[in-house]
Design goal:
This protein is mainly α. The protein has a four-stranded antiparallel β-sheet. A hairpin with a 2-residue loop joins strand 3 and strand 4. Helix 1 packs parallel to helix 11 and helix 15 crosses helix 16. The site of iron/sulfur cluster has 15 residues, from helix 13, helix 18, helix 19, helix 22 and helix 23.
């Protein structure tokens, strides 16, 4: 595939370092890019797919980090650096004057993969928003990693007219600079960099009196520059995505690229749970007991509400219904379970008319006949925030600490464990809080895994309760192969599967569902 047009003849370019298709380091003067110009090169279909898929995995990793860590906190940065170093080192390579072939290849890959994902993620408002958010996060992380000399080069290369102030100027205004920038002491002033920015571009800093202003310029410390540059990056990418969306119909005719592009929309990182893995292993007569002993809190809550109210709203039905399918409830049993409960509130006839279709749909017996997978934690935590009267979502993310405390207390969880869980919840470590809940309800010191999927939670619980797996011992599990095999490998590349429900498929399924009574 060729992006954007014909490359310039070789003779017109500086003959320094070249890639296979004739691209030199002139085109990639910096490791960071604003992605203003599309790549003008030939890309094989194999490269097209692998470059973009790698970038999707990085963006999805950012998504999972956002669930567990506070954005851009030290822990967040450490985890991301570790992940990138191990898998995609190009994203942590900072700019240097003497770049080698390897760095140049990475820059090209960065450039091309970004533009491919623009094509994949411009297709709907929701996808655009997700892609924009993750690209800005990645950009901010990379920008913060760059050394100060490289920041100046980046600004120059992108015509961003923010000039670093000279040492003389810094000395001259040192009193003012220390006075307004509270986090920079006089001792740190020498090693800190300031940039001159037209004050109209940093009105938020001006309003909060966090910058020194002189002759129409605000003197912005490098730590605050990141928010200005990332705003430029966001605005430019947002416009570019809208433009790409408008020109997309031209691409629809290419039947080689469209299936690949659509595939990237799937959640490549979270494990796609095989919905047939446990088929028939659990019967509906065991559900009440299992809900107390082996269901994660989100599903225990949904089960309880379903039993009490004989009804669940849209997203609750999907979250709970697909989970039941994943633990092994067969289609026939599921139909019986839903019919029995719904009949108590709306009657059997109305259930058959309004809800039976959706159960058949969930099991791939209607519509596109897709065998949908149960939702992962990331999906539950980040999408479809529950509103009033809803019971879906993740209780560690969507409940108030008071409500959660009350609920855990009623489940006879020890005060110590409740305090620990609530602290984790307040720190936005939702899945770690869920893992603590697992440990508290299974009487184990170390679960030996981190919860990333409600169905894996159920499987791990059953394995412990049936004696198929010993709980890991925090101090002595290093050589225990069975325990370590249970630890989800966050860096493992996971291929998207055909049965992972995409947003558009989900929308289609939702649109086919009747309104709640
Ligand atoms: Fe459910 Fe996952 Fe939340 Fe646990 S962390 S309650 S399994 S969504």
């Amino acid at each position: 595939m060729q992006f954007g047009g014909t490359p310039k003849p070789l003779s017109s370019r500086r003959k320094r370092l070249r890639l296979m298709d004739g691209f030199s380091d002139e085109l990639y003067p910096h490791s960071l890019m604003m992605y203003k110009k599309p790549p003008l090169c030939n890309v094989t279909l194999q490269e097209f797919e692998s470059y973009a898929f790698d970038r999707v995995k990085v963006l999805h990793y950012l998504d999972t980090l956002n669930v567990t860590y506070v954005k851009h906190s030290q822990e967040y940065k450490d985890k991301l650096t570790e992940f990138l170093r191990k898998n995609y080192v190009g994203f942590v390579l900072t700019s240097s004057k003497d770049i080698g072939q390897r760095e140049l290849e990475w820059r090209r890959k960065d450039h091309i993969s970004h533009f491919i994902l623009r094509l994949a993620y411009c297709r709907s408002e929701e996808l655009r928003r997700w892609f924009l958010e993750k690209e800005v996060d990645l950009f901010k992380f990379r920008f913060a990693n760059e050394p100060s000399h490289s920041i100046s080069e980046f600004l120059k290369a992108n015509n961003l007219t923010y000039t670093p102030i000279s040492e003389e100027e810094k000395d001259k205004f040192s009193n003012h600079l220390v006075l307004v920038t509270h986090d920079i002491s006089r001792a740190k002033l020498q090693s800190s960099n300031f940039f001159k920015v037209p004050f109209t571009e940093v009105l938020n800093l001006v309003a909060t009196r966090r910058v020194f202003i002189h002759k129409g310029y605000a003197y912005v410390p490098q730590s605050d520059l990141i928010s200005i540059i990332s705003t430029c990056f966001r605005e430019s990418l947002s416009k570019a995505l809208a433009c790409t969306a408008r020109s997309l119909p031209g691409l629809e005719e290419d039947d080689r690229l469209i299936p690949i592009l659509k595939g990237f929309n799937k959640n490549a990182f979270s494990e796609a749970y095989d919905p047939n893995k446990n088929a028939g292993k659990v019967s509906i007569k065991d559900l009440d007991e299992f809900s107390k002993t082996s269901f994660p809190l989100c599903m225990r809550q949904l089960h309880q509400v379903f039993r009490d109210a004989h009804h669940l709203k849209h997203w609750g039905r999907l979250q709970y219904g697909l989970f039941l399918k994943g633990i092994g409830i067969t289609f026939e049993e599921a139909m019986k379970h839903w019919r029995e409960e719904f009949s108590k509130s709306i009657g059997e006839e109305k259930f058959n008319k309004e809800h039976a279709y959706n159960i058949r749909h969930m099991y791939g017996k209607e519509g596109k006949r897709t065998n949908y997978s149960p939702y992962s934690c990331v999906n539950i935590i980040t999408k479809n925030t529950p509103g009033s009267g809803d019971h879906h979502g993740c209780p560690f993310k969507h409940s108030s600490p008071e409500l959660l405390k009350q609920r855990l207390h009623s489940y006879r969880i020890s005060k110590e464990a409740i305090d620990e869980i609530v602290t984790l919840m307040k720190g936005q470590h939702f899945q770690i809080a869920c893992t603590k809940y697992f440990e508290a309800t299974h009487g184990v010191e170390d679960a030996g895994f981190q919860v990333i999927h409600p169905n894996e939670y159920f499987d791990a619980s059953q394995a412990i309760r049936n004696g198929e797996r010993k709980p890991a011992n925090r101090l002595a599990n290093q050589n225990d192969a069975s325990a370590s095999s249970f630890v989800p490998n966050w860096s493992k590349p996971v291929q998207p599967t055909q049965n992972e429900m995409t947003d558009s498929e989900l929308d289609a399924l939702m649109s086919e569902m009747p309104e709640d009574i």
